[in-house]
Every structure is written in structure tokens, then in C-alpha cells.
Automatic annotation (TrEMBL):
This protein's name: DNA ligase
One of the Pfam families matching this protein, by short name: DNA_ligase_aden
Positions of the catalytic residues: K116 (n6-amp-lysine intermediate)
Gene this chain is encoded by: ligA
Record-level GO cellular component terms: cytosol
Domain of life of the native organism: Bacteria
Length: 672
């Protein structure tokens, strides 16, 4: 990889990871699985190891993901709340031990192994033994005040069980949704056609985000503690003693932990915990290994993001064994027919599952899967598990081949092979249409909230929608007779549909589900062509010349627009008022190009949202004020950044002034 390529790749990764951090931490609705996220993150970390000068203070490797939420009061953490470095390999865990022992040279530490609870990080303060405040981690420096929400949690003692409670005690741990509650919550949501939570952590985050504590009270959350904010001055010297103290104080803490002296102990503890955690009432995704003696913490220090005296060892995806009862065939938006396994229901990683994807027929052949087989399924963070293995030794001879269908299960059109994929060629196939609408409504496409699977099925099966453009002609009268559709949700849906008209060309191109056109290609196409008409009339050569597009996408895009049916679809969307213009026109100089912003204080919208808009307009965001800062965006209750800005003479602007700037107004004279 050349340096220029590394820089480009770095930029892409940072942008991509930021987007996922926002979806995960702020909206509690991840777009990809944790394993996929971790892969992106590792690539970024490796790239930065090779090119250390690419590391900026706001790189995702340098900061705790997350941001304070609107609607909650901010709480500044006395001591930053950090994340943990993590690994999936024992070799890397041992390398951590070597690093610690090298740093400590003559001293010999011991280690504590605790379950890594898959919840949401919280900090709780007791004054003279009484619960006074609770906060989330937020961006690590500032979290949200969730005192009222935490009060509804029964497991959280409002008074400490200590005869002589300290003046001030900060304890840190996790809020979590017990596995059973999580499972019921998702069942409920499924029945109502609402999107499922990907894992208990997202469900917990979603619950804590509720501004109304009464809603929180209906989701029986629980808490467990393992840490403290400031280890100084609380008269405790080690992690194992601290865990005992927490229990004495009446605070819920891990029911088991392991004290270890060396690598051998650690490997044993990790294996023992893997077994033990299956019986816990909460989901765990790993083991946290901590240096036991607190006096070493100062010496070991921390990176911008995580302490150097602890590491998380993550267990691989959970697997379960069950029987494959039958195979059904699902048509996706591009017409690809996917074999889906229906299995004997089995409990896996926090929920009961009865369907798993078999990906494609090539996979089926490669793994030799047959109906009636005992299979191993795996869930790596996502809701839909995959079949990973067949237990051939359990065969009876009664198993049946999985035969690819000859006709489309949705429209009976004869199917065609396209490489390893089986496709329905009928552009008007209702199965394809359902897939397309679900894709069109996705958050990173046209973002239409409330358009869940069961609703899409009703709309298509009931003949209310014959093409995506029909979405824009739905009325209250159409919607109200549908199942589980109240007046309020119908109105919300209509306004979400209305709002989707202005997403811009890039997201529309992605939403149209053109073969091979992912988000990145859609963005490249939109910013190169600017309008759909120019793209529509482009030749394949012209399209494929765009960086990050290439011949396959070039051909696919031109084929798409050559098809009369697709042209008609686009025309109907245009008539319905859907924007066909790129948010940024080709060659247009972006309004904040070359300007650097620092944000401080509380604003009317989440900080990340404002930062995103600045970035969209070409501006840069940095964490700290320097002479190079063009503007300090000033919210209420600003932090120390304001002082620094005044000292350096950096101009301050309010949120309204920023708004004007974004719209291309004045204020330009202030930058030099
Ligand atoms: N799917 C996505 O789009 C997406 C996006 C962002 C993050 N993620 C996931 O989240 C992870 C990063 O999240 P993170 O920064 O919270 O890190 P993390 O969950 O890997 O580890 C840090 C957290 O572990 C918690 N924890 C639980 N038990 C603990 C114990 N016994 N001792 C100490 N801490 C304990 C603490 O809250 C701490 O903040 C990623 O590795 C990824 O898997 C996924
Ligand atoms: Zn079909």
C-alpha cells in the first residue's frame, strides 16, 4: 500500500467507524455486527501502527465511543470513564502480561479475572451512604445524568449497608437487562413488527435513553458494580478487596472472580469463566483481566482510550446444536433466492432462534447440509445466526438433499442461475419488491422509521404498494385498517415517508438497490454526477472511470438505467417529490472547506449531529483549541476550552451563527 492509499483508506475507516459509533452509542441501533465492527477497528489500529503520523486526537482509536445525549443534563466525570483494550486471542493476552511485567520490572503483580458484563457503563455516587447521582459514560469525559432512571432499578441500593459510610463514594459498573427480560422484550417487538435489539447491551442503552423514568421502570433493568472512579483515598489497595468491599456495602458485584498469579492461572480462569458465565442471569461477552494491586496503576498508566492495567478477552461467537427441520426460500431485492433453515428452536446467545441463513446453494453444497441434519449454528453479534457445521456422525440415512427450487417462491417465474446465485428475473416480483422496500427504508438509505417487515408484507400483499414510489402516495385511510396500526403510528410513518424525500442522491442511489452499488459507490456516483439525469445518460466507460466504482459497478449502473421499468420507477419517484440531486454538487467548493471547529458546552442537538453537519460542509472538528482553530462553537455551560479560545483570540460563535454559516451566510470575514 502506498502512503497515499494509506491516507485514503485511513480517512474512509475513520468515517465509517464514526458512523457506526454514532449508530451504536447514541442511537443504540447498530448497523453492523460487533465482529464486523471490531474488524474495521483492528484495521484502523494496524494502519495507525504502520503510519503513526496519521493518528489524530479525534481518531476512534484515541477516544471512547459515545456522546452525551440531548435531553439529559451533562455530568462531568471526576476521573474519565475509559474503555478497555480487547483481544480474541490468548497469545495477545499473554503479550499483555509480558508488557505489564516488563513495565513493573522488579515488582510482581497478581491479576483478577472478572466476567465482562454486556451492559452499559455507569457511574454512581453515594454521599454519606445515600445514592445521589448516576451517570452514563458518554464520551468518557462527560456523560448523561440518569439519576431518575437509575432510581427505578430495584437492585440499586439507595443506601449503602455500611455503619460508617464515607463522605463520598463513586462506584462504577454496568446497567444491564437480564437475559430473560431481553428475550421477552425482543419477542414482544417482533410481534409488533418493531425492529429487534441486536443484543442486550443495545436494549439496555435504548432503555436508559428514555427520558421518561416511568418507561424505564417497565423494563426491569439491573446493575452490577466492579470499579471505582478514583482509587485514591478510599482505603482499599487491590481489586479483589474492592470486590469484597462492594459486596459488604450491599452493592451487587460479580458473584465469582478469579485471583491469578501467572499465565497458567489466567488461562485456567478464562476457561473456567467461559463455563461459569453460561449460568449467569446476564449476558457476558468476555473476561476482564485486571492487575490486582492498585498501587501499580499509576505506573502502568493509560492510553487516551483505555487503561494499560486491564484488558478484555472476548470469547468467540456462541454456538448451539439443533436440528434442521426444513428449508424455505426467500427472495431478496435483487431477486437472489436465499435458502433459509428452519430449525428446532434453540437458545443461543441470549435468545431463542428458529431460523438461520444458509447464505447460498454453493455454501449448502460445500458444507453438505441436508434436511434432518444435526447442525451447529453461530451468532456473532447479529440477530440472524448462520449454520456453520453439520454433524455427519449423527446421520441416520433419512436426511434429504436441499434441492434448489425451479420457480420463484413469490411469483412462480422460472429462476435463473447467475454464478453461485439463483435469481428471480421478474422485475415486478412481489418478493423482490418487499426486499427492495425494506432496503429502501433502511437507516443508511432513505431512513423511513416504522416500516418493519410485517408492515411491508401487508402493504405489498394487500396491493397497496406495487412499487417503491407508491410509498409516497399512502394516506391515513390506507394505513389505519392495517394490523397493529394506530392513529399515532400511522401519522408517524407518513411523516417519516415525507422526510425521506430530501435525503439526497447518494442515499437514493443506495436505496434503489442497484446491483453491486453499496454506500460508498453511491456516494461516489452522486458526487461525480450531481443529478440523476446526468448519471442516467452516462456511458459505462464514463461511470467506471470514477475512483471506487470500476467496471462491474459501471456496467450494472448503466444496465439499470437502460431498463424501461427502472426508468419508470425513477420517474415516479421524481414525480412524488423525491430529491434527485446530490447534497454536494460536483466540483462545488464546500462552504466550510479549510476551517477548523471546536465545540464546547451543551447545544440544542447532540454534539455529534452538529459535528457531522460541519464535516459535511467540508469543515474539520478537533478536540482542543489551538491557534489553527477557526471558530469555537459555544454552547451553554462551556468548559475550559472557552478560556483557551479567549487566550488565543479564537472567534466564538453561537449555534445560530453556525447555522447561518452553514447556510452560506456572512461571518466569513472573521477567518483569516
Ligand atoms: N456494531 C457496531 O456498530 C459497534 C459500534 C461501536 C462499538 N461496538 C462494540 O462495542 C465495543 C466497544 O465498546 P466499548 O468501548 O464500550 O468497549 P468494550 O465493551 O469492549 O469494553 C469496555 C467496557 O466494558 C465494560 N465492562 C463490563 N464488565 C467489566 C468489568 N468487569 N470490568 C471493567 N469493565 C467492564 C465497561 O463498561 C467498559 O466501559 C467494540 O469492541 C464493538 O464490539 C459495536
Ligand atoms: Zn419472483
Amino acid at each position: 500500500m502506498t502512503r497515499a492509499e494509506a491516507i485514503r483508506r485511513h480517512g474512509r475507516l475513520v468515517e465509517e467507524i464514526r458512523k457506526h459509533d454514532y449508530a451504536y452509542y447514541v442511537e443504540a441501533k447498530p448497523l453492523i455486527s460487533d465482529a464486523e465492527y471490531d474488524a474495521l477497528y483492528d484495521e484502523l489500529r494496524d494502519l495507525e501502527r504502520r503510519y503513526p503520523d496519521l493518528v489524530t486526537p479525534d481518531s476512534p482509536t484515541q477516544r471512547v465511543g459515545g456522546a452525551p445525549l440531548p435531553g439529559f443534563s451533562p455530568v462531568a466525570h471526576r476521573v474519565p470513564m475509559q474503555s478497555l483494550d480487547n483481544t480474541y486471542s490468548v497469545a495477545e493476552l499473554f503479550a499483555f502480561v509480558d508488557r505489564v511485567e516488563r513495565t513493573l520490572a522488579k515488582e510482581t503483580p497478581s491479576y483478577v479475572v472478572e466476567p465482562k458484563i454486556d451492559g452499559v457503563s455507569i457511574s454512581v455516587v453515594y454521599r454519606k451512604g445515600a445514592f445521589v447521582q448516576g451517570a452514563t459514560r458518554g464520551d468518557g469525559q462527560t456523560g448523561d445524568d440518569i439519576t431518575a432512571n437509575l432510581r427505578t432499578i430495584r437492585a440499586l441500593p439507595l443506601r449503602l449497608a455500611l455503619r460508617h459510610p464515607p463522605e463520598l463514594l463513586e462506584v462504577r459498573g454496568e446497567a444491564y437487562l437480564p437475559t430473560k427480560v431481553f428475550e421477552d422484550l425482543n419477542k414482544d417487538r417482533e410481534a409488533r413488527g418493531e425492529p429487534l435489539f441486536a443484543n442486550p447491551r443495545n436494549a439496555t442503552a435504548g432503555s436508559l435513553k428514555q427520558l421518561d423514568p416511568r418507561i424505564v421502570a417497565h423494563r426491569p433493568l439491573s446493575v452490577i458494580f466492579y470499579g471505582t472512579g478514583d482509587p485514591k483515598g478510599i482505603g482499599c489497595e487491590s481489586q479483589d478487596r474492592w470486590l469484597r468491599f462492594l459486596a459488604e456495602a450491599g452493592l451487587p458485584s460479580p458473584s465469582r472472580y478469579w485471583l491469578c498469579r501467572d499465565k497458567e492461572d489466567l488461562a485456567g480462569a478464562i476457561a473456567a469463566l467461559d463455563d461459569f458465565r453460561k449460568g449467569l442471569p446476564y449476558a457476558t461477552d468476555g473476561a476482564v483481566v485486571k492487575v490486582n494491586e492498585w498501587r501499580f496503576y499509576g505506573l502502568l498508566g493509560s492510553t487516551a482510550k483505555a487503561p494499560r492495567w486491564a484488558i478484555a478477552y472476548k470469547y468467540g461467537a456462541e454456538r448451539a446444536r439443533t436440528r434442521l427441520l426444513r428449508v424455505v426460500f426467500q427472495v431478496g431485492r435483487t431477486g437472489v433466492v436465499t435458502p433459509v433453515a428452519e430449525m428446532e428452536p434453540v437458545f443461543l446467545a441470549g435468545s431463542t432462534v428458529s431460523r438461520a441463513t444458509l447464505h447460498n446453494f454453493d455454501e449448502v453444497r460445500r458444507k453438505g447440509i441436508k434436511i434432518g441434519d444435526w447442525i451447529e449454528i453461530e451468532k456473532a453479534g447479529e440477530v440472524i445466526p448462520a449454520v456453520v457445521e453439520v454433524d455427519r456422525s449423527a446421520r441416520t440415512g433419512e436426511e434429504k438433499e436441499i434441492v434448489p427450487p425451479e420457480q420463484c417462491p413469490a411469483c412462480a417465474t422460472p429462476l435463473r442461475w447467475d454464478g453461485i446465485f439463483l435469481r428471480c428475473p421478474n422485475p415486478q416480483c412481489p418478493g423482490r419488491l418487499k426486499g427492495l422496500i425494506r432496503h429502501f427504508a433502511r437507516r443508511n438509505a432513505m431512513d423511513i422509521e416504522g416500516l418493519g417487515e410485517s408492515l411491508v408484507n401487508q402493504l405489498v400483499d394487500g396491493g397497496l404498494i406495487r412499487d417503491v414510489a407508491d410509498l409516497y402516495h399512502l394516506t391515513l385511510t390506507n394505513l389505519l385498517p392495517l394490523e397493529r396500526m394506530g392513529e399515532k403510528s400511522a401519522a408517524n410513518l407518513l411523516s417519516a415517508i415525507e422526510g425521506s424525500k430530501s435525503r439526497g442522491l447518494a442515499r437514493l442511489l443506495f436505496g434503489l438497490g442497484i446491483l453491486h452499488v453499496g454506500e460508498t459507490a453511491a456516494e461516489a456516483l452522486a458526487s461525480h454526477f450531481g443529478t440523476i439525469d446526468r448519471l442516467w445518460n452516462a456511458s459505462p466507460e464514463e461511470v467506471e472511470r470514477i475512483p471506487s466504482v470500476g467496471p462491474i459497478i459501471g456496467q450494472s449502473v448503466t444496465d439499470y438505467f437502460r431498463d424501461a421499468f427502472n426508468r419508470q420507477r425513477v420517474d415516479r419517484l421524481r414525480q412524488a417529490g423525491v430529491s434527485m440531486k446530490a447534497k454536494r454538487l460536483p466540483g462545488e467548493r464546500r462552504i466550510l472547506q479549510g476551517k477548523t471547529f471546536v465545540i464546547t458546552g451543551t447545544l440544542s442537538k447532540p454534539r455529534e449531529e452538529i459535528a457531522e453537519r460541519i464535516r459535511e460542509s467540508g469543515g474539520k472538528i478537533t478536540e482542543s483549541v489551538s491557534r489553527k482553530t477557526s471558530f469555537l462553537v459555544l454552547g451553554s455551560e462551556p468548559g475550559s476550552k472557552l478560556k483557551q479560545a479567549r487566550r488565543l483570540g479564537v472567534p466564538e460563535i453561537s449555534e445560530n451563527e453556525l447555522e447561518r454559516l452553514l447556510e452560506g451566510g456572512t461571518n466569513d470575514d472573521k477567518t483569516s
